[in-house]
Specification:
277 residues, mainly beta, Methylamine Dehydrogenase, Chain H, 28 strands, globular
Length: 277
Amino acid sequence: MLLLCGWLDPTAGRAQPAEPLRWLPGHTQGIYAVAATSDGQSFVSAGLDGQVIVWDRASGGIVCRIPASPRSLLALDLSTAATDVAGGAATLGGLSLVAGGLDRTVRMFDVPRVQPLAAMTSFAGQPKAVAVSADGQLVITADSGRLLRQWHPATGAVVRDFGGVAGDVVSVALIGEPPVLLAACADGTLQSWYVESGQPAGNAWTPALSSLAAGPGNRSVTVGGTDGVLRLLAWPPTAARGLAGHAGVVAAIDHAGEATGRELSCARCHGDVGHLH
């Protein structure tokens, strides 16, 4: 699967050519979601084969493989964690990840353990998006039944539901301190709620959305559109800036971990994992 198809320079506003540093084969079916550790030294992928794989960036090797679901995985997120390298081998400390799929279950794992810490099962539809806070203490899910829900990560119990969801949620993210929940809806609505109270924090509107990422320093939000345009929004929202370059749906986005946030990566899926620099 070609995972990262290129990076966009927000200053130039145009796509830049990029070649994969290496291919990372390991999944037996398509890869649907990816994430990176905060130091950028490890990548995590979730596939339609139900597996979560943690990759070492330097070697391209598999750090661990977790059979996370008996069915396909559709959503993935992870807490902030650093990669420790000892004797040439990468190990992860304090990494928690959340993955959800077609069995209508979202599971939280403490890497590299393969037994879930908690399983979340009360959904109105298929889990489509998940978000976990940097400290692993907040877990948010969105499903195809327009249910936006916060969970207790240790027990898998429901904490609260967020009301007034405007449309089908395609992506969620957490931003700021105290945290604000962002939800990107397919109709182009970007909604937000204060997590501690569950009260709405305001909405923004763009063309139809397909993905969402919170930028470094909690100062920006990037949304991907079904029109192939990435839009950069200051946070709290002001006017969006469009980055044209894709011919179709922008399926996923992530920001570089550097404080400048000057590089964005956008994701497509075709067979193996490709890492771009």
